[in-house]
Amino acid sequence: MKYQNEIAAYIDAHTEEMIEDIFTLCRINSERMPAEPGKPYGPGPAEALSVALKMAESYGFATLNYDNYVGTVDLNGNPKQLDILAHLDVVPAGEGWQITEPFSPILKDGRLYGRGTSDDKGPAVAALYAFRCVKELGLPVSKNVRLILGCDEECGSSDIAHYYKIEKEAPMTFSPDADFPLTNIEKGRLAGQFDAEFAASPALPRLVSVDAGIKVNVVPGKAFAVVEGLDLAEMRKTAADVTAETGVEFLLEVCGSACGAEDAAAADIAGAGAVSDAQTAVADAASGEKTAGAGAQAAVAAVSRVKITAVGEGAHAASPQTGNNALTGLLTYLTRLPFAPCPQITAVANLLSLMPHGDVNGKAMGIDLKDDISGELTLAFSMLKVTDCRLEGMFDTRCPVCATVENMLNVAKAAMAAKGITLHNDSFNPPHHVDENSHFVQTLLAVYEAHTGLKGECQSMGGGTYVHHLENGVAFGASMPGTDNRMHGADERAVLYDLVTSAKIFAQAIVELCE
Predict the structure, then answer these.
(1) By CB atoms within 10 Å of each CB, which of 32, 120, 331, 480 scores lowest?
(2) Where are the beta strands (DSSP E) in 151-258?
């Protein structure tokens, strides 16, 4: 392809600068925050957008800020041919980071670690360096390319909706927010919202509360519950059995009558000397050692409440099979404990029967659909709160092209209703499909093959990107096939080679599509 060697040499020569620009953006916590005047998604996303636009301006590009919803960078002033949609907002940092802190990005062993390195600040900067490459090498392009930087992709894409009320869709659009080679099918999505109410019961032993999930599109890596009146030794034994079965681990913390699902430390237990002995018993249980001493045994017997922390592995809801759902693990554990019979426990058991641990395809709910072009339906049970008289939660379903209201949504509603649970959704986001034989798609695949030597072919994905509602929009990069970026999880990372190669591919695509 024309200028391929020049493009590769330029990007290689500017890799260190690209890394530092990525790190500059990744040091900013740009998760969605409460709105402020002039900052619809809070100060973090607005700061990230401001920094990114100033970065682009320093390289000689014209920029626009659309009310801190979206910012744009234009390659030139010619008629628009191609939009590249990336985003600067991130999911919450979450827990379990080991390589570095979420907003202290580092380069280690050829990988960039930090929240946003792969989703989507790293790819956004790769696109910006493609712009720099084309501009600074003086490569001939007769039409404009616009880099669109959004601030709300992770929470509903209201930013892009705002932008397209003002601007028209370009003839061609791609988003570097997925994997290569190219995604021309994005599954539909049902963010299922449900609840149930029941009569409270004071009978012991009882479940006091459940609290799990941070976002509907994140498989929870931790989940919490508080129980009352159970024997701690029996709880430990059941916890070990469920861990062996599910891989989800359980931390049991003795607490007092004021203990809530959010409490992290053990509260006082009535009775002199009971606190230290009971805490010792819990520590021994966690390490598998035997509890010694009559004082500890008496303290355990006197325990009124225990906080349970279930620890699994978080993941993106579009690929729930890559994680280990702490919420469904917790519910599995709770349904094995000898609570006094009551409507609350029945409701929890009914809920688990619809979305049991390990069922990531909606089989128990009767919606395990699949087709040849987009694959299987996936389901992630991601959020739940339970009190003495109510439960409410959400699940995230990614639906193949064959999914309809009749064969998916209505079936799910009926299955939940049969268990006394109300699913409130009346519609779902339909799938997106772009013709794989179009000039646009075939050009992108040819560019990918030229710069990687790998086979270029179309694929489908469960995740939704900015292009989902665009007539001629596809996801293109920025991860190479098979790469595990731990997107939305702890120790999110991007492979440096992938980002460098992506910048080369994007620059080549601009030349081929806009000459």
Answers:
(1) 480
(2) 172-175, 178-179, 182-186, 188-197, 206-212, 218-219, 222-228, 249-255
Are the C-beta atoms of residues 24 and 51 closer than 8 Å to each other? yes
Q: 379: closest CA among 254, 231, 194, 181?
A: 194
Instruction: Map 390-430 to HEC letters.
Output: EEEEEEEEEECCCCCHHHHHHHHHHHHHHCCCEECCCCCEC
Rounded Cα–Cα distance for residues 43 and 29 (Å): 9
Phi, psi (rounded to 5 degrees) for 214:
-115, -30
Those residues with Cβ within 8 angstroms of residue 90's Cβ, 6 or more apart along the chain or in another chain: 29, 30, 31, 115, 116, 119, 121, 154
Q: pTM to 2 decimals? A: 0.69
Asked if the 195-269+304-358 domain carries CATH number 3.40.50.970, the reply is: no
Could you give the residue range(s) of every CATH 3.40.630.10 domain in the chain? Answer: 4-187+431-514
> Cis bond leading into 478, ω under 30°?
yes
For each of the chain's 515 residues, which pLDDT tens digit applies? 999 999 999 999 999 999 999 999 999 999 999 999 999 999 999 999 999 999 999 999 999 999 999 999 999 999 999 999 999 999 999 999 999 999 999 999 999 999 999 999 999 999 999 999 999 999 999 999 999 999 999 998 999 999 999 999 999 999 999 999 999 999 999 999 999 999 999 999 999 999 999 999 999 999 999 999 999 999 999 999 999 999 999 999 998 655 654 443 333 322 223 333 333 333 443 344 434 444 444 444 445 899 999 999 999 898 999 999 999 999 999 999 999 999 999 999 999 999 999 999 999 999 999 998 899 999 999 999 999 999 999 999 999 999 999 999 999 999 999 999 999 999 999 999 999 999 999 999 999 999 999 999 999 888 778 998 899 999 999 999 999 999 889 999 999 999 999 999 999 999 999 98
DSSP 8-class letter at 18: H
Helix axes 232-246, 326-334, angle to 10 degrees: 130
Structure tokens at 184: 């021309």
Check if the beta carbon of residue 212 is closer than 8 Å to that of residue 220: yes
Separation of alpha carbons 478 and 459, rounded Å: 14
16 CB contacts (<8 Å, ≥6 apart)?
Answer: none
Among the listed residues 242, 240, 265, 239, the one whose alpha carbon sits nearest the alpha carbon of residue 254: 265
Q: What is the 3-state secondary structure (H, E, C) of 422-463?
A: EECCCCCECCEECCCCCHHHHHHHHHHHHHHCCCCCEEEECC
Strands (E), 67-110: 70-74, 80-87, 106-108
Whether CATH 3.40.630.10 fits 4-187+431-514:
yes
CATH 3.30.70.360 in the chain, residue ranges: 195-269+304-358
